[in-house]
Amino acid sequence: MTRVAFIRSLPIRVTAVTRRPERPVARCETHGSLAKSAPVQRAAVTTDNATVPAAIAKVRQIDTTSAAPAAPITRRLANRLDIAGPVLLIVSVAARLAWTYLAPNGANFVDLHVYVGGAAAIDHPGTLYSYVYADQTPDFPLPFTYPPFAAVVFYPLHLLPFGVVAFLWQIATIAALYGAVRISQRLMGVSADSGHRVAMAWTAISI
After folding, report:
1. Which long-range contacts (CB under 8 A, 24 or more apart) does 160-163 make?
2. Is the confidence at residue 7, as pLDDT, over 90?
3. How many CA atoms lie within 13 A of 199 on its CB side?
4. Any residues with CB less than 8 A from the CB of 203 and at least 6 apart, and which?
């Protein structure tokens, strides 16, 4: 008969469980000193031949809620931006347009004048790089210094009133800024279905 079969054949039963209040003393084999151990519960396990004391481990429940870390500051900031994003964008765009059209010299669109005016020079061959804009910069005339392809791209804009072009230019700039923020989010791992409100908030801050 194997050892495992012999052990399984023993009729084992627990007769009593006792708790010893005192600390058991254990002797160190190497130095002969005494060492105290923590109190344990012991049970008397009875077989046919002898009663053997057996230690019972005491399991305590661990509280993991107190160890949970606080939410990161960046997460709380993102939640606030997610809530306030659309409102911030509306306020920021309104403030930008108000400053452009109501404040003296709020926005003169000098560069846009150069783009559109230089594109209009296509109607007069050979005059593209002789064009200069000096209406608002008389002491420093601004020439068209861009490739001919840029003049072709801007050519349709000179057919519209400049006020309309300036307004659409601002809206397109804001939309492009929002698109740049969204691309940055995607590069950071933000899914395409989320992050829109946060992107609005960062666009408003950038404006």
Report:
1. 162/109, 162/113, 162/116
2. no
3. 21
4. 89, 92, 174, 177, 178, 181
